[in-house]
Amino acid sequence: MIMERKKITVAVSGLNNIDSPGPGIPVIRALKESSQFDVRIIGLSYDNLEPGLYMHELVDKSYSIPLPSSGTSSLMERLTYIHTMENLDVIIPNFDAELHSFIKLAPTLKSEKGIETFLPTQEQFESRHKSVLYDFGLKNEVKVPFSKMIFSAQEINALKNEFTYPLVIKGKFYDASIAATPEQAMNYFYKISAKWGLPIIVQEFVSGNEVNVTALGDGKGNCIGAVPMRKLYITDKGKAWAGISLADENLIEITNRVISNSKWKGGCELEFIKSKDGEYYLLEMNPRFPAWVYLAVGCGQNHPESLVKMALGEEVKPFETYEIGKLFIRYSFDQIVDLKNFEKISTLGEL
Amino acid sequence: MKINKNIAISETGFIFNPSNGDSFSTNPVGMEIISLLKDGKTKEEIILELTQKFQIDASTMEKDLGDFFLMLQNFQLLNE
Predict the structure, then answer these.
(1) Closest CA–CA distance from residue A256 to any residue of chain B (Å)
(2) What are phi and psi of A205, to 5 degrees?
(3) Which of A43, A175, A180, B41 could staple B36 via S-S, CB 3.0–4.6 A?
(4) By a Cβ cutoff of 8 Å, what residues of chain B touch chain A?
(5) Does A329 touch chain B (CB under 8 A)?
(6) pLDDT at A118 over 70
(7) What ipTM was reported for this prediction?
(8) Please, which pLDDT band fits residue A1 given cuts at 50, 70 and 90?
(9) Structurally, what CATH architecture does the domain formed by B2-79 represent?
């Protein structure tokens, strides 16, 4: 029996398919492969050089949107215009920095425009911030390396009372460096705070293998899907250029526990360190799909498709299996773009 | 000595550890040793079997096998 796929329009951001890629293009690939939906993709971009803008086989139409710093009213205005043109069914925002605005706008988007989202609540979003991750771990029964926030370089000398070196100096949003001495810690404090501001997070260093999980929660305590991955090739920006899916029941169990306890709604990425004695420590929880989410599709779990189903109010059963030992290997690709197209997005804000 | 139960070995000598994603290649002798370990053979039984099959004395075999086991342990493929 041939089932006709339902036509829907989904707007997706994170089209920056660069060396530190956004999740937009992998999410779009997943949606284009949906067995249930025939998806028209509307790209939402912040920069005219985001490669996804020019990937017309994946992105049907694109629009520039204002940066999060412009505030939610200008974003709402722009989304209203885009909706008038495209009649959006669902929006999947993929940047950490824009999530706050979309979470805030979600009720209005639904009630006034009929646009669905599937995002964590503001409380859930705040609860996994790096600065409060230690408390998140206590609350959700997952080990997190001990950490504390510091607001000035003078506090570094006193760290020896609570930490042993090496320790990790982390930015509020991005960047992390391992400091072997207080001098190095001081150095990284200035370097990272100049880029990302204060506070700086000081975290206990745990040595071991990094393993990550891409997962999806239904907001009611069910983990709809989870695929663990180990990075096989890491770029100088610390991003996975290749990775492999793992068989790790403990990791799946921990992921289920975190999603269940926190009643996480939406996609997420859990970053763990597996210590030499086999203990798992949660290093970060990213509040959206990772850029390697397409590996989950390759392993038999189409998380973006399931997210769209839930956003549209359909019931989704949790995935029970995935293929182990599947690899993803990224590649770079030079697109040739007509100046006309670049001109169009630059001047009209649409392509 | 026990080979980790999840370890997958192909006919070409490609070894994959699904719990940490590590992969290795081994030669036909290595494949045979791993296959004997999978069958639950002890170190002594493996030495006996291999010395009968190959032209090698038991003490050299024991030393080589010890080195190989150490390597398997370092790669987290073998449990004590």
Answers:
(1) 18
(2) -85, 125
(3) B41
(4) 6, 8, 16, 18-21
(5) no
(6) yes
(7) 0.78
(8) low
(9) Orthogonal Bundle (1.10)
Q: What are the E-state strand segments in chain A?
A: 6-13, 37-45, 61-64, 90-92, 147-150, 167-170, 176-179, 200-204, 208-218, 223-234, 240-245, 265-275, 280-286, 327-329
Tell me whether residues B18 and A230 touch, CB distance under 8 A. Answer: no
Q: Which residues of chain B does A230 touch, with a Cβ-Cβ cutoff of 8 Å?
A: 20-21
Does A210 touch chain B if contact means CB atoms closer than 8 Å? no
Min CA distance, B20 vs chain A (Å)? 6
Nearest to A252 by CA among B51, B22, B18, B4: B18
Q: What are phi and psi of A83, to 5 degrees?
A: -65, -40
Asked whether the beta carbons of A258 and A228 are under 8 A apart, the reply is no
Output the pLDDT for position A245.
97
Q: Between chains, do A247 and B19 touch, taking CB under 8 Å as contact?
A: yes
pTM for the whole structure: 0.90
Give the model confidence (pLDDT) of A42-77 as tens digits: 999 999 999 999 999 999 999 999 999 999 999 999
Pairwise CB contact (< 8 Å): A209 & B20: yes
User: Is the pLDDT higher at A123 or at B79?
Assistant: A123
Least CA distance to A208: which residue of chain B? B20
User: What are the residues whose beta carbons fall under 8 Å from the beta carbon of A150, sequence distance 6 or more?
Assistant: A156, A159, A189, A199, A200, A201, A202
Residue of A nearest to B19 (CA): A247
Nearest CA in chain B to A231: B21
Percent of chain B residues past pLDDT 90, beyond the cut: 74
Q: How far apart are CA A96 and CA A99, in angstroms?
A: 5
What are the structural domains, with CATH classification, of chain A?
6-118+334-348 (3.40.50.20), 146-204 (3.30.1490.20)
Identity of the amino acid at A202: V
Our CA-based measurement puts residue A202 at a distance from the nearest CA of chain B, in whole angstroms, of 28
- In this structure, of A171-175, A221-225, A323-327, B36-40, the range with the lowest mean pLDDT score is A171-175
**Residues from chain B contacting residue A247 (CB–CB below 8 Å):** 6, 18-19
Average pLDDT, rounded, for chain B: 91
Which pLDDT belongs to residue A309? Answer: 98
Q: Decide if B4 contacts B77 (C-beta within 8 A).
A: yes
B50: pLDDT strictly greater than 70: yes
